[in-house]
């Protein structure tokens, strides 16, 4: 599927894979020779992201400059001539919201990181942001108000991101689209019934809107409990 799509940049989240364990078929993907991997320090099988690119970035950084979170391997940022591409896997608040407070601290630190980037050049943030922002972004909002990914605090964090000059590209283009989900639990045939959540986003700096061509949710692509999304920009 990746070879057919031939993306300029491929962002992967929750890889659960250290650099040395990246499968050879991924290493050998044609058209994506420049690969950058982050994984959790001392926690194999936890978190992790990867950013693969057709052309070599000008610069690549890991983390957000926050020691509490950077050991988890959640963010890789590649600088290209016209923009930054940020690949991110935002922490889950956890069953029973046991990790809600660390999650909220991550949100605050991550927003400051994105603001610093945006002051230098436009940003495209791609990733599993582990939040359904509005009721339209999940199948059963009323039943999930106290569940991770849909608490008022997490939703407010995403609202603050939008208020800081960033745009949810899919919702900007398709403000009324319903049933547009990117995650379905493996339980109960949820995907077949489209009982899902929109947790995966392409967020852009406001000044990139003139370059935004489309943002597609690729819900028919199998292989995970999440589906890919594609951001198309003319930059």
UniProtKB/TrEMBL annotation:
It catalyses: Exonucleolytic cleavage in the 3'- to 5'-direction to yield nucleoside 5'-phosphates. The record marks 226 as: Interaction with DNA substrate. It comes from the Eukaryota. Its main location: nucleus. It is found in: Nucleus; Cytoplasm; Mitochondrion. The active site is at 89, 128 (proton donor/acceptor), 226 (proton acceptor). GO terms for biological process: base-excision repair. The record marks 130 as: Transition state stabilizer. GO terms for cellular component: mitochondrion; nucleus. Pfam families: Exo_endo_phos. Residues 1-226 form the Endonuclease/exonuclease/phosphatase domain. The record marks 200 as: Important for catalytic activity. The keyword ATP-binding does not apply. NCBIfam families: exoDNase_III, xth. Initiates repair of AP sites in DNA by catalyzing hydrolytic incision of the phosphodiester backbone immediately adjacent to the damage, generating a single-strand break with 5'-deoxyribose phosphate and 3'-hydroxyl ends. This is DNA repair nuclease/redox regulator APEX1. It comes from Pteruthius melanotis.
